[in-house]
Write a structure and sequence with these properties.
It is a single chain. With 267 residues, the protein is mostly helical. The radius of gyration is 22 Å and the shape is flat. A two-stranded antiparallel ribbon has the order 1-2. Helix 2 packs antiparallel against helix 6 and helix 3 packs parallel to helix 6.
């Protein structure tokens, strides 16, 4: 299960999506989420499915990586579907004890599941196609105007990128600790909820120790390279907008406008 968590991973490539400016991809994620929440009917959801499939195809990211990323939240998806299925008022279809399934509930559950799946896949493409360093630079430049309000933009961007960068590392470390504990006879699957929670203590303690050790090593490495924050810091690669970036932004604006139009028409 832990190996199925792909958040924070980066898939190197030379696709159109990989070459886009990270600032454009960050803005596009905002456009994508805004457009997705404007979807109300079959036509609008169909457009979003095509847009999502097109982005995945252009990124050349393996679809199985997106499927693996959905596995950890499968319980949330199922729970959302069940709640919408049984607790939506409308025309009854089937009645199970005191619970009633309605036509409206079926439609709402279907659309809600599709929305969550597209939301996860669309946002995961940001980290899949953007290197952590590029993501940090893009976020810092995008939030640059906030520096006038004395907001520590650079520090915030650095912390976010490092957090994303170390998610796969901590997952791998957790998997190794669990394997070692199982080899010593530990059981993490039997018993009630409280017993399972207690069984996780032998994992959490060494995991926290490992995390603090890695944080200390990272701090020493940054200090040895004379890192002192964003003041006077230069970049090896300067971010510049190209024609594809302007085209992507224009498509994002058109997508949001189109979805608003479909919502107004009830589609």
């Amino acid at each position: 299960m832990l190996k199925d968590i792909t958040l924070g991973q980066y898939f190197p490539g030379d696709s159109v999506v990989h070459r886009l400016d990270p600032r454009v991809k960050l803005v596009w994620v905002v456009f994508y989420i805004a457009a997705l929440f404007q979807a109300t009917g079959l036509a609008s959801y169909g457009v979003m499915v095509l847009v999502t499939a097109g982005c995945v195809g252009l990124s050349h990211v393996p679809p199985k990586a997106l499927v693996k990323g959905l596995k950890p939240i499968l319980i949330i998806i199922v729970l959302t579907a069940v709640l919408n299925l049984f607790y939506t008022v409308g025309t009854p279809v089937v009645q199970i004890w005191k619970l009633t399934i309605t036509y409206e509930g079926i439609a709402r559950a279907f659309f809600m599941v599709i929305r969550i799946v597209m939301l996860i896949c669309g946002t995961f493409l940001l980290t899949y196609t953007t290197a952590p360093v590029a993501l940090t630079d893009g976020l810092e430049l995008l939030l640059g105007p906030l520096k006038k309000l004395r907001v520590p933009v650079h520090e915030m961007s650095m912390m976010m990128s490092m957090a994303l960068r170390f998610i796969p590392t901590l997952i791998e470390e957790t998997d190794k600790i669990m394997s070692a504990q199982k080899a010593r006879g530990a059981d993490f699957e039997s018993g009630n909820l409280l017993q399972r929670a207690k069984a996780l203590l032998p994992i959490l303690v060494p995991l926290f120790v490992s995390a603090f050790r890695r944080a200390d090593e990272l701090a020493v490495a940054m200090e040895s390279r004379c890192y002192h924050g964003g003041e006077g810091r230069t970049r090896m690669k300067q971010l510049k907008f190209a024609g594809a970036d302007y085209a992507a932004l224009a498509l994002g604006v058109l997508l949001v406008a189109g979805m608003i139009g479909l919502r107004v028409m009830g589609l």
